[in-house]
Amino acid sequence: MPLASIIVPSFNVADTIAETLTSLCAQSYGDFEIIVVNDGSTDTTLDVVEPFRTDPRVHVLTQRNRGLAGARNSGIAAARGAFIGFCDADDIWAPEKLATHVTHLLASPDVGVSYSGSRLIDDAGADLGLAQRPRLLDVTAAHILKRNPVGNGSAPVIRRDVFDAIAYRPHSERHRDWYFDETFRQSEDIECWMRIALTTDWMFEGVTGLLTAYRINANGLSAATDAQLAAWEKMISKLSALHPAFFARHTKTARSYQYRYLARRAVSDRNAHRALEMTRASLAQSMRPLLEEPRKTLTTLCAAMTLHCAGPAALDVLMQKKENNT
Amino acid sequence: MTQTCTVLHLVDDTTAGGVTRVIDQMVAAAPLAACAHQRVLPVTRGRFGALPKDVDIIVSHTAISWRTLPALMALRATHPNVTLIHVEHSYTEGFVVHNVTRTRRFFGLLKIAFSLFDRVIAVSEAQADWMRRHELCSHKSLTTIPSWVDLSPFRDLTPPRGPIRTLGAIGRLDTQKGFDRLIAAFQSLPDPDLRLRIIGKGPQEKHLRQLAGTDPRIVFAGFADTPTDAYADVDAVVMPSRWEAFGLVATEALAAGRPVLCANVDGLRDHDPFGAQLIQGPSARDLVLGLRRMLDTPYSPRPAQNLRHREALSVRLWQDVFLASVADRTGALATAAE
User: B269: nearest CA in chain A?
Assistant: First the structure.
């Protein structure tokens, strides 16, 4: 039995999955299996995957479309490893990623969720020069709710025991357990991480290094931010009853960070109205981001103001200057 | 069998909670009384003072914290030849989730404290699993002994007949018990003839009354002086606790022939084989679904025999622990004499 399983949820990813699987097969640590969950793809995903099946470690599982959470759940149900990693079929793992997480989990029996930072790449796979560098140590449930240090769905490697602890089976489900909540089409990650943090005492801890290349899809990003916010609020209302005091204390700050994130996205889209609206909404929820992350919060505020008062050209000039300085 | 050892139970919480009743039951249990002379000594938390000298075994039922650690260390230092046993009545995975922010530091505390004892007793299998998982004490020194109280008065209650009309929430009104979740879930059940009886008192009472609002179906019955009274007036018992080392209420309710619906946490999981139903999942909706399922399913209580076996097993295990401690000690003394 392999020590690790890597689950690759795949829905219409013919363009990118070859690069993903190549990076996984090239991991420096070799005792793993790859479970490609073909989530009802209607393109040539399966054909692209086919040549990889000559590697005996690669398994393909096809199901009717159940969404990201459903694909991950099927992958977890089929996984045989004690450690389970996830890599979305458009992201890339650095060669030493699995080795680093396996070492981390073997050395830290209290850690259930091991994650790393990520560098961001664009549609063409070019490095955007941007990174997610999350907090790595002393992570509490509050940090997870506010800043989600796990970052993205291709960053964590998680103990099987953690999933066994949160497994449940809704009455409508006949075949296997649920780990991620399949009624969520967005925010399914943070919902699952919060459930781990609020119902088990497994610790979250990060390892150093940007071990995942996380693809920022130019079109996907700006789409459906309202739906994303709605999914996030659904997560809050689903879990609030678990720990009312915790949510009473942290929800406003967490929501403020959510709005700040949307403000930053609006700035990148050069949407002045939305950027200002979201910045205001963020500050109205809580001033804590200003205290906890003054630099990032002030930058967001300034960018939104500049965009609003002086227009996109001015913002471009300022950002150009900043890039020249660094 | 003649009494072969003297046992001193240290208790630092003498409120009418479960711990006191569990210890009383231990002292009263005939098979234990036959092999050990047991005494109970209430102590101030974190300051045990001078203890009687002529004891073979000290059983700590006290709360571990950084503040009480010096007292535990002193206990070990001043009783090198006494077998020290700790019964962990409080801490569980759920406790950590809801009360501890610096998990690693807390595990460090427990590891130090547990290492001072010759034996650590977990009160449920789920709690023992948790201790093993985090390697809080050596596997060799860990024993699981389910708590028990005298269940005969509960067995004597008339089991409810017909459909469930009154749900009972029994226990201290505290965040731990999760009755706030229960009130919210109960209010989503439309049946006007259903009742929720909340039995107990505690710091959360005002908040719970606010949540219940003007819903005439929810009754606050106050504290039941006689534990059996709490069960006589209800057809089923719900335990939506956030953490629970063992959950005596579940065994009492099962002995009384009442169906029990438990949160899927900590020691409450241990009651599943004895007939308790577990809530599938942590969300508010899961609790509502669990309630609906309980109300819709005709209940057939498991034979009370199972609970009797469990009780007998606990007594046996304690007997073994006492006798083994004495045997170890005589063995050690004999070796020393040589």
Answer: A165
Q: What is the mean pLDDT of residues A142-149?
A: 96
Nearest Cβ partner of A203 from B93, B103, B130? B103
From residue A61, how far is each of A9, A13, A26, A75 by CA, in Å?
10, 15, 21, 8
Amino acid (1-letter code) at residue B129: D
Indicate which CATH number applies to the domain containing B254: 3.40.50.2000
Cβ burial A197-223 (10 Å sphere, 16+ → b, else e): bbbbbbbbbbbeebbbbbbeeeeeeee
**Is the model's pLDDT at B333 over the cut of 70?**
no
Say yes or no: B16 and B145 in one domain: yes
C-alpha B268/C-alpha B278 separation (Å) is 8
Whether B155 is in a domain gets the answer no
Q: Work out the average pLDDT over A269-273.
A: 88
Assign B92 a pLDDT band (cuts: 50, 70, 90): very high
Kindly state whether residues B211 and B140 are assigned to the same domain.
no
Q: Is B283 near chain A, with CB under 8 Å?
A: yes
Whether B134 contacts chain A with CB within 8 A: yes
The parent domain of residue B199 ranges over: 160-296
Nearest CA in chain B to A239: B283
pLDDT in tens, A203-250: 999 999 999 999 987 665 545 678 889 999 999 999 998 889 999 999
Higher pLDDT, B333 or B229: B229
Domains of chain A: 4-220 (3.90.550.10), 243-325 (no CATH)
Chain B neighbors of A108, CB-CB under 8 A:
none
Residues B168 and B278 in one domain: yes
Q: How many contacts does A have with B, using Cβ atoms within 8 A?
A: 61
Of the pLDDT bands very low, low, confident and very high (cuts 50, 70, 90), residue B336 is low
Band (pLDDT 50/70/90 cuts) for residue A316 is confident
d(CA A127, CA A123): 10
Taking any CB pair shorter than 8 Å as contact, residues of chain A touching chain B are 109-110, 138, 140, 142, 161, 168-171, 195, 197-201, 203, 238-245
Asked whether residue B317 is assigned to any structural domain, the reply reads yes
B207 shares its domain with B83: no
Asked if residue B67 has pLDDT above 90, the reply is: yes
Average of pLDDT values for A249-264?
94
Q: 10 Å Cβ neighbour count for A157? A: 27
For residue B139, what pLDDT is reported? 93
Residue A326 pLDDT? 44
B303 in any annotated domain = no
Min Cα–Cα distance to chain A from B85, Å: 25
**Residue B127 falls inside a structural domain:** yes
B93/A200 touch (CB, cutoff 8 Å), yes or no: yes
pLDDT of residue B84: 96
Q: Are residues B72 and B175 in the same domain?
A: no
Q: Do A243 and B98 touch (CB under 8 A)?
A: yes
The dihedral of CA B114, B240, A164, B125: what is its sign? positive
The answer on B314 and B241 residing in a single domain is: no
Q: Distance (Å, rounded) from C-alpha A154 to C-alpha A120? A: 12
Do B270 and B324 sit in the same domain of this protein?
no
* Statement to judge: residues B240 and B123 lie in one domain: no
* Tokens of residue B104, six digits: 């690693």
Q: What is the tally of structural domains in chain B?
A: 2
B100 neighbourhood in chain A, CB within 8 Å: 201
